[in-house]
Amino acid sequence: MSLLRFTNKGIYCKKGDFYIDPWQAVDLAVTTHGHADHVKWGNKAYLCHDLTKPILHQRLGIDLKIETLPYNKQIDINGVKLSLFPAGHVIGSSQIRLEYKGEICVVSGDYKVEYDGISTAFEPVKCHTFVSESTFGLPIYKWQPQDLIFSQIKSWISNNHDQNKTSVLVAYSLGKAQRLLKGLEGYSSIYVHNSIANLNEAFIRAGVDLPETIRITADTKKDDLQRGIVIVPPALAEGRWIKNLINGSTGVCSGWMQVRASRRWRSADAGFALSDHADWPGLLSAIKATQAEKVFVTHGFTATFSKYLNEIGIDSEEVKTQYGNEEEDEKIEEQPTVKEDLS
Amino acid sequence: MSNKTNDKIAALVSYFNDADELDKPFVIAMFTGKKPKRPVNTSLIRQWATELSGIPDWLFAESYHSVGDLSETIALVLPPAEHLTNRKLHEWINDLAGLHSKDEDDKKAFILNAWNSLETQERFIFNKLISGNFRIGVSNKMLVNALAKQSDTEANKIMHSIMGKWEPTEITYNDLVGGAHVNTDSSWPYPFCLAYALEMEPSSLGQPNEWQAEWKWDGIRGQIVKRNGELFIWSRGEELVTAQFPELHFLVDELEDGTVLDGEILSVKDGNVQAFSILQQRLNRKTINKVQLNDAPIGFYTYDILEYQGEDLREQTMAFRRNLLEKIISQIEKKDIIVLSPVVSFDRWEQLAEIRQGARKINSEGIMLKNLQSLYHAGRKRGDWWKWKINPYTVDTVMIYAQKGSGRRANFFTDYTFAVRDGDKLITIAKAYSGLTDKEIKEVNSFVVKNAIEKFGPVRTVKPELVFEIAFEGIAESKRHKAGLALRFPRIARWRKDKKADEINTLEDLRQLLTSTLVNS
Fold it and tell me: Which CATH number does A4-140+276-329 carry?
């Protein structure tokens, strides 16, 4: 594989002299998507999809040099042809396709194959070399169809409602939160934490169609909140903040919820295995569809997944990267204090 | 199901309100660990599941390691069900019981068909039914509380009923919670009265003369029941262990019908209590041989009487029960085998504190304090019985391996192996996976990720840098361990961020400790 190198700064394309999702500052960072483990502050320039730009501004600041591309449009960087294809992971998430003298490499970042209703649907891209994640690269991870999971979430919400409990859904600010909003379209009074509200506003400004939400602020009344549905990022679900705020039941939305032990570990009242990553069959079908001769497995169950690929005749190798901790890295701002309604 | 006890009890109550009548006794049996004989062995189940999923054995093993539960792993790796069925729990259980007489092909056909007709969650429960291990976050006490609430019955009566001898196929739910079966059954034990650990100063308990002090023994808590000419020995795990302790069988001729004694099963040689490590040699064995009988002879140190002449004494005071107990034991011949656990006399708390320091010399764990006016409670109740243990042993070690946890900690390095120094080498001394806060676990986890030297499957060798103080309850010789000794109940007491790896203890330190614990026995 001459086109890509795995260096201690990130995935490097020497011919084009740029990095893909580097974890140390570089001159040009081609960015698959806006999760904190894939894009760092301090690069001289960024290249990403049109809809990833507002996320980067929101998360890394205004003072950034960002070039954008739509999907399927090819540009040339030092002789390397570069184009973006939808990865289906979150809004704007892209697989990076590189071509040089007939050799094609695709770096997929994070991806999922099921259409989630809000991110452009995943598109398999034929290539010689494919770089894949393996977050859920074990055969125990097989997702139920999204419709079924949403009907479980809805019946949980109505059950909470009967018991006068607020449904507190725990979801990543970027991706999962918007997916939930789309899936729960039609419910009124959905309250969201600042980190989610900020992203939503950025998306709406960029032309994404999102259902209306209410930002939790210092002026939010406790009683109103009690009657609504609340969406918070993972870092808050474990703290006292939300528990002190309302009488609620917490539902964690994450692929990890597939396993009972993880539900207990997160001390969730309910867990929904709603993931933005490909499940086991999804990873395998995506990889087979690329017809790649070589697959590099970056983050997740790398050793296991790569060993299995080799056993089924797909030449594969694991690579050490710093991806794979969206949740840990999610930056959480100060919490607004909510007023008791004394009236 | 939720994590919170009250939510779980509410869920159980609501289940028992609505469930099928025939299902209920089976559910109680499962939660209390009454295992039917396993109809198909685990390795076959695992083999069929692997086959059906079309994955290699090693991948199944990796999945199992990540999930931490075999039944759940199987439920998750199987392909989706093709036709769903709706059957009652007791129907499944009866069918499974019927499998015993079938040959392997029939068994396989039944199991595969069942898997193909159940959803993931149902499959998980079905697999648990096969294995008989149904302890999933519901303790006996929790179940008892739920049943008590649902049937409006006293909790200790329910505890009685479900601890006794009954078959889910032969009893109705109402008879079971009503205790219809327990009077005709001579084996039933009483729920043990349990003590809380004393964490405050003993002087806060009041006057010394209100309390009875005894040694706290480190053995198997047991209840000896003699009724209708039969003798039963129950362990605290609610298991009948009569057959394991033939030395005590003579009591069938010594005790009157309607007598129940509470005490500790210990290994006692030449009048001295031996270390737990010696008793351990003969626990959970199907047969006891002569050597074991000779090396680890059993004694029963009794400290309470719960029933005499068929009368329940639990509403009598400790002082009354002790008095009666002393009288009864004095009439028994073999005083080396059935021993009245001595009362430790003291006038001042400081004096007792001093006596307590000598506990290790007689292989005791400390002092028990029982209020002389206390009744014999069912289970744990704060205030009347306290265990005042001596501090555990501790040793400073360095972490050398880390492994990802299973179950709820599957995605963090949480299982660590610790070593002490032996000359220039480090030698493994304990594995422990508890004692750290979630925050510390995350911190250690990132250390492991950054400082992994080598990788053996799920295990990482890490730079020997982090020092942990390991607490443990005892030490025993061990041929299976490289160090030649093994620690009992090792757990992380503290992460010693203030210490460096060259400040840890040596193997010689531990050898000396071992020698000192064996001198007495």
Answer: 3.60.15.10
